[in-house]
User: Fold PD-(D/E)XK nuclease family protein from Amycolatopsis acidicola.
Amino acid sequence: MTGSTEPGGQATHAGIVRIQSWQVRGMRQRCPARFAVDVRPAVAHAKAGADVGRTRSASALSALHAVLDLIEFDQLSGDAAIRRWTEKSDPDPTLARWAAQAVRAIQEAEPKIAATRPDTPVLEPVSRSWGRQRLNAEDVYEEAVVGRRYEADGIRELRLLSTNSVAGAARERTDDAEIAFLVGVTAGARPILGGRWDHQRRFSLGRFTAPERIRVVEVGCADGSIDVRFDGSPAEALRLYEDEAAGPLAELLADDSYRPGYDCAKCLLVESCPGVPSVPGLLGVTGDTRRTWSVTSGREHQKCPDRYRFGEMFLPRERAAEDSDGTRRGRAVHSWIAQRHDRRPIQACRASDVPASSETWSAGWAGRDGIEARLGVQMIGDHALVCPLAGLAGDTVRTEHLVVAFDPVANAVIVAKTDLLYRDDHGWVLREIKTARSPETGDLLTKYPQLALAVLLSEAGVLAEEGAPLRVELEELTGSGPVLATLDVSSDAVLAAARRAVNRLAGPMFTMETSGPNPGKACADCGFVRWCPAARKTAA
Ligand code: SF4
Ligand code: SF4
Assistant:
């Protein structure tokens, strides 16, 4: 046994494996190496202690939970709870505005939830978290559910809050494996005693009271929508856990591979990870605080620093407001082509690989006049003329692949989402596929900073193979036909221009030359207008 018992204390245990429900989200995409650290609190604590520069920003949902605690456990009204929380924590006014609306939406959802269990209309909020524990000679295995907890008459109900809606086509949905984990753990859970969860001490659990019915309800804070995801007996809950969660979880725990991707952003291992190349000076900036940077986040910050910050807080954004007709068309074209590139065995795109009906294909994103839809179909057909997949086989094509690098000088994790990576006889090629009404005539690296970043990654030897550097291509699909360009990654002039383009985009976020709101033009396509006080002043 790796732990010990201190006199008068709870058993200490360096070998605790502690899995919280949010950690099993998207299990099949998770990085096993990071997961192994995240679920071992003692290891994560030691790593986090060394990693003093990590950023920690308030998230929308954690703020909302603080307000709901005041309502449910201090018996305050919604307005009084918002006032108390505001006095105590001095939150960002944008966050406070959203939280007040979210509380109203949750209160509207309450009778709808009660109507789904008319036999037991009133449940009591439960302050203690729910968890279960298995002890054996080698380790302590613990599972805990995260969500708002309610109980009465043998019913245990978990409510999962979403910042968006949980109804309709655009709803946000917790994945099935996470629901299975939640219900299985809830069925066998005891209250977790004590306050803060200690990284070295196993959970101290209260008495087990067998539940008779388990429920999981999603609640949309955008509109008070609800979705009952599970309502069944403990036996059904445990069976669902075994069927949907236990297998993938065991596989993830047994795996020790590195899978670079979005997980790298907040990973405690990133500085020394063998799966992530270290590229000092990639962004041309210095940084003390750990950040994640991408072309998208750089652009967001450039438009308005607060817009970027609100995204980091996971405030809900109105996506429709952010998209132009061209953006919607570009996304649809990309998605169509990516699906063709994902075919196995690999096939080059043909001119006939276009949507059978532009109306059906574009329903939901294009205007009634059909102009954008017809242009999109033409672009997809044009792509066949320059599709590079002919003759490629095996594991040589990756669509929408994430390339991750760490810049220790900037203290930043850089995430590049590539449109297409393929390997021919001479090595790997990164192709950016862009759509535009007419071909770009200006500086390509400034217009498309993804290309500039790709050039710098190539120079750093990322994805180089047997001495052959990564090649970088631009495919522009335009109203007047496709244009294919190969960038000369060995040219000093191209490299210098790429450095300037990346540095120009990254600089302001790192130097904090600009911060706060930038009301004006940027508000026109900002998804946070509804919450942002600065935007309202502009409109007035
Ligand atoms: S840095 Fe990325 S690849 Fe490496 S362990 Fe962390 S998540 Fe996995
Ligand atoms: S509404 Fe305007 S000022 Fe507010 S975050 Fe958006 S762009 Fe910035």
Summary: Residues 1-10, 52-56 have pLDDT under 50 and may be disordered. The CA atoms of residues 366 and 373 lie 6 Å apart. The chain has two domains: 4-55+131-254, 291-511.
